[in-house]
Amino acid sequence: MSNLSNGLLAVDFSGLADKIFPHHVIEKGWFVINDSVLSGFIVVAVILIIALILRLTIIRHWKTTPTGGQMFLEWLVCFFDKSADEMTEEYSGLMGPYTLGAATYICCGVLIEMFGLRPAIADLGACVALALCTFIFIHTLGFAKKKVRRLPHYLNPINIVTDLAVPVSMTFRLFGSILSGMVIMDMIYILVEGIWYIGLPLILPAVLTPLFTLFHAFIQSYVFASLTLTFVQEAIEMPPPKPKRPKRSKKGQLAAEQKTV
Amino acid sequence: MELLITMVANLLATDGALLGAGIAALTGLGAGIGMGIATGKAVEATARQPEAVGKIRTMLLLGLAFAETTAIYGLLVSILLIFVS
């Protein structure tokens, strides 16, 4: 296979294989740190520093007539708070910040790819952690809202299978889409290196990076947030109260009939 | 006969994974059809009721995410088949 592609394009894809899976940077027995985890630490540090800077600059000079930065912050926070408010009424104080935090982490964790590091989300562990957070939220909030009436939900085996499929599907959706974006970009870099003589290396990555990195980052963070809200809404949804039937004794019926007559 | 068996075994051992990767990529077919139908319906809905465009966009994105998942599974399987030996 490599012979054919070598002959056609002078492109060598054999370097792609060791870019797909994370490398172990530190390995001491069970204690393993790969490069995704390192970039995850960098992302968290960057987010904390940005939050501190925003707290000290924009939020300290909070104005009643907002300008630029304040307007953006208000829009961002209001967007998540409003959608949490619509979906999970009394738990919006919990779900709004959680979805905003998770979306920020996913978005920044993917965007770090543009600095040449491995994206923090392109590791199965990060995706499992986020999906398990959502899983725990779904079930604790379901119990907190519905108490004992939540229990019949677990008696149905189909419901249990559906519940267990939620974190798995969320994990693989996130992991697969980020990994595929990363692999496609790596493939394009290798391809462009092979056909440098047309001048494509200047244009092609610049055109395709927004498509495969920026687009994925925003779409996946938005999808993760809205899926979390949808599942929580489904879990805390109260069954509609049964319409009370007016008791009709025979006497009353007769009396009513007599009245109408 | 023995030669044939060794040939088939060799084929399965070396090129079988690549064939499987090609077959796994067919998941894109179903996902593409599903996403196309969803987008078309969303365009229809927007044309019928332009003021509901926000809600339609939210639902469309959710549906697209669900439809995209199968394609991503296929992609993961084919990547694993090619690169994990």
- Which spans of chain A of ≥5 residues are poorly predicted at pLDDT below 50? none
- The appropriate CATH architecture of chain B is Up-down Bundle
CATH-defined superfamily of chain B: F1F0 ATP synthase subunit C
Number of helices of chain B: 4
Distance from N terminus to C terminus of chain A (CA atoms, Å) equals 92 Å
Mean pLDDT of chain A: 82
Structure description:
The complex is a heterodimer of chains A (261) and B (85). Chain A is mainly alpha-helical. Chain A has one domain. Helix content of chain A is 72%, strand content 3%. Chain A contains 10 helices and 2 strands, in the order ααββαααααααα. In chain A, strands 1-2 form a two-stranded antiparallel ribbon. The model of chain A has no long low-confidence stretch (mean pLDDT 82). Chain B has 85 residues and is mainly α. Chain B has one domain (2-83): F1F0 ATP synthase subunit C (F1FO ATP Synthase, Up-down Bundle), CATH 1.20.20. Chain B is 88% helix and 0% strand. Chain B has 4 helices and no strands. Chain B has helices spanning 2-14, 16-24, 27-48, 53-83. Chain B starts with a helix and ends with a helix. The mean pLDDT of chain B is 85.
